[in-house]
Design goal:
The chain is an alpha/beta fold and 159 residues long. It is built from 5 helices and 8 strands. The protein has one domain (2-157): Alpha-Beta Barrel (fumarase), CATH 3.20.130.10. The two termini are 22 Å apart.
Length: 159
């Protein structure tokens, strides 16, 4: 299924665990250092209908980090409440997090650790907030057909 950002609630409702998706448009990138700061309101970035990719942005490219790290997983519910509709990462997430996704009409998708492929599909990158965090700052990428598999949706998980 082709998905373009911003993502509507109707698109999220149509997704099921195991669906293969391709994401195009603008996505945010953040992980351990930046996501808790966004949750605490330290940024005025509009997250409505957005995608957050659990990754750092470096000259080597982007690749998923483990979404079940405390700082990342504990941000998934609050960020969903703030309007994030799709969280991209890797690994299993806890049942409580799956429930939070359902409550706020969001989903979690795993993305393969294929840095070279993602580099070809990244059209632009821009530093958005927290430059002092270096590669762990909040970035916005413009992407074309990032591949992912829905791993948690509507109270269900593949794990």
């Amino acid at each position: 299924m082709e998905i373009c950002t911003p993502i509507t609630d109707e698109v999220i409702q149509s997704l099921n665990v195991g669906d293969m998706i391709y994401i195009s448009g603008n996505i945010f990138c953040g992980r351990d250092a930046v996501l808790p700061r966004i949750v605490c309101g330290e940024s005025n970035v509009d997250l409505q209908g957005s995608v957050i990719f659990h990754t750092a942005v470096s000259p080597a490219g982007v690749g998923p980090t483990s979404s079940n790290k405390l700082e990342i997983e504990s941000s998934i519910g609050p960020l969903s409440k703030m309007g994030v509709r799709l969280h991209l990462g890797k690994g299993a997430i806890h049942t409580e997090t799956v429930r939070a996704l359902e409550k706020y009409n969001s989903v979690y998708a795993v993305i393969p650790p294929v840095t070279a492929l993602l580099g070809e599909k990244t059209l632009e990158q821009e530093l958005v907030a927290f430059p002092e965090l270096g590669m762990e700052a909040l970035y916005r990428l413009k992407v074309d057909r990032y591949p992912a598999i829905i791993a948690a949706a509507h109270g269900r998980s593949i794990y």
